[in-house]
Amino acid sequence: MIFYYSGCGNSRFIAESLAKDLSETLIFIPDAEREGRYEYTLSQGEAVGFVFPIYSWRPPHLVSEFVSKLKFKGISPYVWAVFTCGDNVGMSEKVFRDELNEVGLRLDATYCFVMPNTYVNMSAMKIDSKRVAERKLSKSKQQLPYVAGAIKERQAVSEVKKGLFPRFKTNVVFFINLLA
To answer: pTM for this structure?
Structure first.
């Protein structure tokens, strides 16, 4: 099962591609939230995945709220997450790992797909040129089979791009951005 959120389509593309490769069911987080679907029963060997964009170097508030209400029945699953971002994710992995731990889940693997930059809530942020966006999409498409294979093999890895000053971005810039 793959829980996903997408604001502009980048994460939806990744989630749909992985769901197809992994033969998994997709659950759109806003729909599950609206319907109050927070409890899920897992079958033997079932994995749980999350795909979402990174906003201000953190998981989106909607994703964090949803995860805080999740309950799983059954065996403790292999849990993986894919973050989409314009350039890097800061300390998002740690933030999300802590959120999962609060509901009794362990994050086993994380991956990062650098996608066309669409975040423009900060004055220094600009959308990518067409050439840069096409290059990022091409690289992401090439990365998909590798990530799907690693998930199938239940690898325990952390393959995220934190970028420069990840703690500062995640802990300070995020809160400054909230106040703006």
So the answer is: 0.86
Closest residue by Cα to residue 39 from 104, 109, 120, 113: 104
Residue 28: exposed, middle, or buried by beta-carbon count in 10 A (0-12, 13-18, 19+)? middle
Query: What pairs with residue 84 in β-bridges?
Result: 53, 113
pLDDT tens, position by position, 8-24: 899 999 999 999 999 99
Q: In the structure encoding, which two tokens stand for residue 37, read together? A: 């679907």
Whether the CB-CB separation of 46 and 14 falls below 8 Å is answered with no
Q: What is the dihedral of CA 153, 158, 163, 165, to 10 degrees?
A: 170
Q: Which of 85, 93, 67, 110 is nearest to 6 (CA)?
A: 85
d(CA 11, CA 163): 20
- DSSP structure class, residue 160: -
Beta strands in 66-160 (DSSP E): 71-73, 78-85, 109-114, 158-159
